[in-house]
Design a protein that fits this description.
This protein is an alpha+beta fold. Helix content is 37%, strand content 23%. The protein contains nine helices and eleven strands. It has helices spanning 29-40, 45-50, 55-63, 65-71, 76-95, 148-155, 167-180, 182-186, 251-274, and strands at residues 2-4, 103-104, 110-113, 117-122, 126-133, 139-144, 191-198, 204-213, 219-224, 230-236, 242-247. Strands 1-7-8-9-10-11 form a six-stranded antiparallel β-sheet. A hairpin with a 5-residue loop joins β2 and β3 (110-113). α7 runs parallel beside α9. The chain starts with a strand and ends in an 8-residue tail after the last helix.
């Protein structure tokens, strides 16, 4: 269900908010990633290209994600290592990136994954997590200082390419929200709407979306879930180009949202066609 609300703009807590990329006509994720790497001096451009893993090899590893997590057993450190490894692998496939490229996050520092090592390094707290894959395929955890909150966020990370939202889905979400509530996007003071998503297992999730006016007619869109975690950060520039900085909505719910928006557009068009033509004043 989608309904309008007027809760206003709110700064939500960080969710699984892996920022650092822009989508839209002017930016691509690989380009932004390269700029971040070069700006911080982590890797020269040549090394980034040379370290890119073959797409078919990375895809094969992503397909084995579920079995690998089960093989980790009850060891929380091994489970965290496998889930971080699967997340970065799936992300690399979806966006055509090198799996070795560091991921800078707002809540966990920098995640670094290679063929046989996973590291999480925070600039303030130092090395928080490090694990190495042994010859037997198991994870040997050397450092595990992840908090329970961080561990819970790791548990929510996408594990396969099918679970990972794509760039096109991010733009589709913004367009769907606009189609469902066009007046909320056009109001000078900004607007908001609420969407209740029902899952196949009978559970539901409520998402709140706030639209805030920016300079020169741009619009910023912030979405949060029931726990106050950020699930959408996007902007529409004055020319209508969309840039999505964060999308953490399950793909199955994205499909339902887009379907609902399409039905809303069709319904509006049908009502317009059914209206009688205006009388001529002669």
């Amino acid at each position: 269900d989608v309904r309008l609300s007027h809760r206003g703009w709110s700064l939500a807590q960080d969710g699984v908010a892996f920022a650092g990329y822009q989508l839209g006509r002017q930016y691509t994720r690989p380009a932004i990633e390269r700029q971040l790497v070069l700006a911080q001096g982590d890797l020269p451009m040549e090394d980034e290209v040379e370290q890119a893993a073959p797409a078919d090899q990375v895809q094969d590893q992503a397909d084995q994600a579920d079995q690998a997590v089960e093989a980790a057993g009850d060891d929380p450190g091994a489970i965290a290592a496998e889930r971080l490894f699967n997340y970065v692998t799936a992300r690399a496939v979806v966006y055509g990136l090198s799996r070795d490229l560091p991921i800078r996050t707002r809540t966990m520092g920098v995640i670094q994954v290679s063929q046989d090592r996973v590291m999480v390094d925070d600039s303030e707290d130092g090395l928080q997590f490090e694990a190495t894959r042994t010859h037997s395929g198991n994870w040997h955890v050397e450092v595990d200082d992840l908090s329970e909150e961080q561990r819970a966020k790791v548990a929510k990370l996408p594990q396969t390419t099918e679970q990972y939202p794509t760039p096109d889905q991010g733009i589709a979400v913004v367009q769907a929200l606009h189609d469902l509530a066009p007046r909320e996007f056009s109001r000078s003071e900004g607007g908001s709407l609420q969407w209740k998503a029902n899952f196949a297992n009978g559970e539901s999730e409520t998402f709140d979306f706030n639209i805030a006016p920016q300079v020169a007619g741009a619009r910023a869109i912030l979405g949060t879930n029931s726990q106050g975690e950020s699930v959408l950060e996007a902007e529409i520039d004055p020319q209508g180009a969309m840039q999505v900085a964060l999308l953490a909505i399950p793909p199955e719910q994205i499909e339902r949202l887009v379907e609902k928006a399409n039905k809303a557009v069709q319904s509006r068009r049908q009502r317009v066609r059914q209206q009688p033509p205006p009388e001529l004043q002669l």
